Amino acid sequence: MMTATAAGADTPDADPREGLSAGLHDAGQAASNIALLSAQQKTSPFTTNSDLAFTGDYAISGNYYGFQVYDVSDPAAPELTGTFVCPGGQGDVSVYGDLLFMSVESAPGRLDCGTTSVGATDPQNFRGVRVFDISDIQNPVQVTAVQTCRGSHTHTVVEDPDDAENVYVYVSGTGGVRTTTTALEGCVNPTNANTEAAHLDANGNPIDTARFQVEVIKVPLADPASAAVVNEARLFAAESGSPAGLWPGGSHGAGLQTTSATDACHDITAYPEIGLAAGACEGNGILIDISDPVNPVRIDAVTDPRFAYWHSATFNNDGTKVVFTDEWGGGSAARCRAVDPMNWGANAIFDIVDGKLEFASYYKMPAAQTAQENCVAHNGSLIPVPGRDIMVQAWYQGGLSIFDFTDSANPVEIAYFDRGPNDASRLVTGGYWSTYWYNGNVFGNEIGRGFDSLALQPSEFLSANEIAAAGEFQLDEFNAQGQPMYGHAPSFAVARSYVDQAERDGSLSGKALTEVRKHVDQAEKLAAGPANDRAVKAQLDNAARKSGLPGSEVQTALAALAGTFS
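Above: the chain sequence. Below: its structure as tokens.
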């Protein structure tokens, strides 16, 4: 499926995303293999949309002015059911059970959620992570607010598989260290220099500093009001123990990027099932051992001469790859113009080999955007298609791009949705902050326009069976920075997905393909009738035999499905 409203869209080989007409709510649109179901406009007083979290039938839309709650039980018609005014920066949100966490880093962050700024030493001044009780999601109640030294630009909810009584929050603060000790006891910043020497005393010993750390908050689930910082993890320290052990900031040389210094992470994505996290940490991408969540340990670090600012990270489901993003220009600049390099402001895909990050390739949204559109790699998540690594990703006013990185060295775009600029004559910051897959649909938080829901469409790249199988994987809640491992129960959609993939890669064709599909169809018909498990299993066994692919994913999926009828 492809639709477009674009100047030059009929030109041979023209990308329909190029030349879209401008407008806030009437801009031209281009779509390929995905359909816009609903576009909910923002409501006053909410200004700038930010990140998303999901719980049950609800999407929680972060905003610089607080957050909004949408009922998405009908993805074609989301309903705004609640709003909560509580400003303090971009307002990133996450959920865990009946708790909602919210980052606060800047004015007018206040303990009481007030809307006017107060001074740094005022008792109401707040920079850190808010904790809300959302057992009644329409009436959230703030139960505590944990102050941190640099506030919280983003945060990551981390589960410990061996600890059912607590949950942990990693705080990524990118603001300046508090300037007065009365603002928060223990916040120390002896210098703003990035060099190791600047953080050593006269005897060469490290000086304690609130820079170069990730704060770990422990949240007792039985008493979330007692949440507190329990560790200041020095993930950036050199082996000597001194801070500033990673990229010091600066140019990589002629024709290459100037990369930010590493003194914080912008985003950390935790993957508790494999005991790892990936930190996008300004000047470096880092791999972190979180087998002990209270004491995360850096195990590898990489930099890239074409990255300006390491922003966010996403693992593949197997935990063998990481997609890091580069927010070149800080998200407010036009970085997808025809003159901009395709490996700047892009994704860098790394394989994880023996605990080390090995570069594989770059991926960037391929359509040239105008100088009136801020565009660079931003937030996304996996789409749980069996047997494939597929990600949906926001590119601000570059729209959303869905790409397959199963072959990490050769990522391929398979779907997209884009609108024209917010304004035809000047750059007005906007576009998608986040686009995530949740329980069968893609949802996007549009900075200036509102909240969107979208549905994948079958194509040569993605079959109806693969879309259906992805939709069968359901979550009770989802935070993109607290990545879950997905697995698929045996089903006809899953088995057919692998058959479709075998047809696509050429390993199953002709008579064998016809026979496999005939037997699977017959098995499903039998399964829908009176109980006859033996007959269903016989048809699935026949399908597996006819495939002629011993040990393949096709046979494994058919055998697993047959096993449910044994």
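The chain has two domains: 2-478, 492-563.
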